[in-house]
Amino acid sequence: MPALNWHAIDTVLLDMDGTLLDLHFDNHFWMEHLPQRYAELHGVSRALAQMELQPLFERNAGQLQWYCLDFWSTELNIPVRELKLETAHLIALRPDADTFLAAIKQAGKRVVLITNAHRDSLSLKLERIELAPYFQRLISSHDYGFPKEDPQFWAALQADIHFDPARSLFIDDTLPILRSARDFGVGHLLAVKNPDSKKGPKDTAEFAAVDDYRDLIAGL
Question: Strand runs (DSSP E) across the chain, as ranges?
């Protein structure tokens, strides 16, 4: 990973899940816990539950409703918020993410959280991990009505917080989102090498990736 030119960065835009928080919580919930509880609540086998859920997941991936707890509660006829509480003990900070956040805040950078997470998901995580004090703003894509994959999200973000894309750093673990940010003109982009602690490193394609947050602090 090349060293960052911090003198050319005024604003730091940070994703939450998989970037600051371990993606294991979300992967476990959507891929394991929710299918199991769906099967139990609807009186079907786990295999049948998976067969019913998979096409729904694939059809909605990358769209705003994919991240919306209200949508899934209605679509699946199950209390998704309450089910998330059952696995909330798995919510965890990625190693040294707080060290990085403290350092960039101390350096005087403008730090903004931008997440596709539904406000209820955001609140659940902020109750367990003290992230809010590091940020000037905490923005959910649901506030704008467009996911971060959509160019209209970035236009809405700029109209809201008046940031200079060329002098901004954005870190995210999702490649389509990074490409959307690049298309908008965000000048400094980093992927995340290992967003889920229970899985191996991921291919970050054309993007340089952060593996250790302590490495990013050099030159601040």
Answer: 11-14, 110-115, 137-140, 168-171, 188-192, 209-210
CA atoms 15, 19, 25, 31: torsion sign: positive
**Over the stretch 69-124, which tens digit does the pLDDT of each residue have?**
999 999 999 999 999 999 999 999 999 999 999 999 999 999 999 999 999 999 99
For residues 112, 117, 123, 126, the Cα torsion angle rounded to the nearest 10 degrees is -50
Amino acid at site 215: D
Q: Render pLDDT for 143-186 as a digit per residue (tens, 0 to 9).
A: 999 999 999 999 999 999 999 999 999 999 999 999 999 999 99
CA 24, CA 45: separation in Å to the nearest integer?
24
Length of the chain: 220
Inter-residue contact 186 to 153 (CB < 8 Å): no
pTM of the entire structure?
0.94
Strand partners, 12: 111, 169
Domains, the chain, in order of start with CATH, read 6-22+92-216 (3.40.50.1000), 25-89 (no CATH)
The CB density around residue 9, as the number of other CB atoms within 10 Å, is 20
Q: Which residue has the tokens 């236009």?
A: 155
